Amino acid sequence: MSKTTTGTSAEGTPAAGPPGEDAPDTTPSGADTTPSGADTTPSGTGTTPSGTGTTPSGTGTTPSGADTATAGPAADDDLGAAGSQLSTAPTETSVPGSFGGNRAPGLAGRLAWTGREVVGWVRWFWRQLTSMRVALLLLFLLSLGAIPGSLIPQTGSDALKVESFRQAHTTLAPVYDKLGLFHVYSSPWFSAIYILLFVSLIGCIVPRTWQFTGQLRSRPPGAPKRLTRLPAYATWRTAAAPEEVRETALRVLRQRRFRAHTAGDAVAAEKGYLREAGNLLFHVALIVMLIAFAWGQLYKTEGNKLIVEGDGFSNTLTQYDDFKSGNLFDDDNLVPFSFDLKKFKATYETDGPNKGTARTFEADVDYSVGADGAEKHKVIKVNEPLEIDDAKVYLVSHGYAPTVTVRDGKGNVVYRAAVPLLPLDNNATSQGAIKVLDGYRDPRGKQEQLGFAAVLVPTFAGVGKGTMFSQFPALNFPVLSLGAYHGDLGVDAGTPQNVYQLDTKDPGLKPFKDAKGDILKKMLLPGETLTLPNGAGSITFEKDIKQWASFQIVQQPGTGWALTGALAAIAGLAGSLFIQRRRVWVRAVRGDDGVTVVEVAGLGRSESAKLPEEVGALAALVHDKAPTQTDAADRPDADTPVPAEGAETK
């Protein structure tokens, strides 16, 4: 029979803890992990150290009688400093009634009360703004606010689409204007959410960082008076001296990477600081991402350039077809480089269900950095841009540029160029305009301008097939269809116009007529010529058909910081989710009968099945060095049974 049944509890030990360990009478932040009732066996209760062969006397028992009556606030008070500061999260506060307190009579009393009231409410609102709940709410609102910026055309990215939307939605457009939905990312409400989120994160991180730094510099708190109150608990009696048990426990805990030290009659240890470090890293990473995003938006540049094979580009504003930039952009911020498009290559699927689907798009370019940089070669592919410092050159589209030669009535060449045409479908049926602005004179010697509406069919179906759409995107059977016009193209009027279209409704532009009085049109094969009537000249479709490629040049600083912040945020979030911060205490004291009583208990920030397992493993390791002492009643040579403590002796 066991000598004692109640001596294994914390109350049964002569020394419950070192002097001065009692905490102030406040509810600790980690008290939520304390069992709500002492009469219920904790999850860690009943842990039997492995390798003993027998259950240690009293192991896993909970106090009875008066002990169970102290559950609730008393249990929280028992934890003291041991249950506090398991997290750096600020204490949640409810909405107060008044901060001013009692108001003294007179004007001075009213002013003092008003001052206390204002300062109190300001502090309360600041605590709410810097709370994690509000930070998450602002982050959610920021995500919601970005949705209309993706669905509704934005003035900063495509003003033409915005204007088309206004014309098509006369009722919605004014509402969107008032809400700032055509310029979401620069709207006051989006900026307000962005700034509040930034302030909230800063106000949340700074005090928690200082508090966490203080925790790292301090030692784990001493053991509470009653270890039986903790959710994971094990105990046994041993013949080893208390000092030996504590030394063994200290060594075992340090081997398992606990920060441990001896405090009075117990060894205090703590582990899992990386949880809070991961939490802080996550929020710091969010700030880095916000700064990088703002920096990139303020200094970014984005432009497009269409280049025909053999032509080049220099990174200056005048070279772009269209250009957009951030509010703080300066011309000097452009990365100095240039490149030439030597050759564009494209291959397509020739049969099967994916016939005509592109297999490869490659642009061979020679580029140089700076005015005197050495020339280098690069093959730009889809999603494989040319990277030069902060600038990236992306390949975004391609098409064909048929070479045409225009002659006047005397046979003089007045125009010769590869004219880029824009594709209309997936098979590269292309449309555009050929404009001869200078150098042409009609048969009477009058200076005029010529215009040709052009349609290129890379793979013609054939005469009589009833279609002018290409059957395949490659140049298998190219045909160029032309419609001829002369007069004034309207480019000298100062009104901007599309270089790929002819304004055939302009009264100053007249069509050439054929013998039947219809608009002069003809389909040309490579090498064929369209002769204009009345000796007005001709246009020849040359056999040299070039290709063009459209490039997007993007320069957005801060992308590296944004990527670093994103990776750090993922790492921090993983640490805060999967690492558990916990504390363990091993107490060893001599009982009234001179036998050493060993108690092992653990406390975590939240309930976890791993905590009892870890406490059990630690208890087993300590138990190997300080095994359970066998009571006299259990020995086979015992003559007279010894009654248990607390039992009536007869």
Please explain how this structure is put together:
- With 650 residues, the chain is α+β, with helices and mostly antiparallel strands.
- It has helices at residues 73-79, 106-129, 132-151, 159-168, 172-179, 188-217, 242-255, 273-299, 559-578, 610-625; strands at residues 232-238, 259-263, 266-271, 301-308, 312-314, 322-325, 337-348, 358-369, 376-381, 386-388, 391-407, 413-418, 422-423, 430-436, 449-457, 479-487, 509-511, 521-524, 529-532, 537-555, 582-590, 596-604.
- A hairpin with a 5-residue loop joins β21 and β22 (596-604).
- α3 (132-151) packs antiparallel against α6, α6 runs antiparallel to α8 and α8 packs antiparallel against α9.
- The radius of gyration is 42 Å and the shape is elongated.
- Residues 1-76 and 632-650 have low confidence and may be disordered.
